Amino acid sequence: MAKRAAPEVNAGSMADIAFLLLIFFLVTTTIEKDKGQLLGLPPIQDQNVEPPIIKQKNLFTVLLNRKNQLLVEDELMEVKNLRQAAIDFIDNGGSTNADGETCDYCKGKRDPSSSDHPDKAIISYKYDRETTYEKYIEVQDELLAAYAFLRDREAQRLYNRSFKSMLEEKAKNQFKKDEKLNEQIKRIQKMYPQILSEAEPDKD
Amino acid sequence: MSKFKKGKQGDLPAISTASLPDIVFMLLFFFMVATVMRDSSLMIENRLPGAEQVEKLQKDRTAFIYAGKPSSQFKQLGTEPVIQFNDKIIKVEEVQASVLAAQQELTEELQPKFVVGFKVDKDTHSGLVSDIKQELRQANTLKVMYITSVKGE
């Protein structure tokens, strides 16, 4: 037998095959970035400690029942109206805070029968075990939006920029601390502290 | 003039495409490495609720808890919503130990900043979420993030 030279393998289609794979991975790749609502849970209270007495007017009760109906201060309300109601309550500034300061930056109605000061205004959020998680998040989102609105308003007034942009800048420069910016963020957070108290649903 | 012309004009040599597969393979390997298929395969339905007021999640300090109804391949788990942590279905009582174990795995400076991410199906009843939260309070891991999809994006 005469020795035949092995025929050269045509590598021209290699690029096509590689491209095909490449396109597959390009399409299936999702560089995911999760986002969500960051909140703190209350630490477990000592049973012996008497809970502080809170005046009814400083309490804004939000209740979600098992039929996903929203009750705000014992009245039925639609979710889309909740944000404004919460803003009105927090921003009321009817009286003084614990240090005897009036809320000079509040733009609310200053109704003496509503909250005294943003420091004291507590939103109490209660839900039923049968409430769907979707509704629970929706209502919580509206309440967080109320705080975000007020903080943003003050950021615009004091520093002429949105509160969100301040937080974004802080996150971007996490390795070199910007004291001035942190100070400004703290000041606004102190003006409208986020006091969102979540009640445990009743066991049945 | 014609003595400077060498041969016919416009007779460009063909560009060699021999290195093209190499370039493409390089890209291919990059995407293969960068692709994360999914950390843990989900045994439950997981459609996140939508929200507007959201912050970015910092993955380096987060442990995920999934909850929802078992998906169609896992019918044997029943129809009631269950909790999944990593690759296992766990009971409510096991949440505390699992979360504390996950916290221990972090580097020391991140441990105080530990966040628990909730990836809960939107049709789950919030009683289950409340139970998990009670367990987290017991474990003293108080930062939680309700992971949502972003509305209007």
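qc> Residues 56-199 of chain A form one domain.
qc> done
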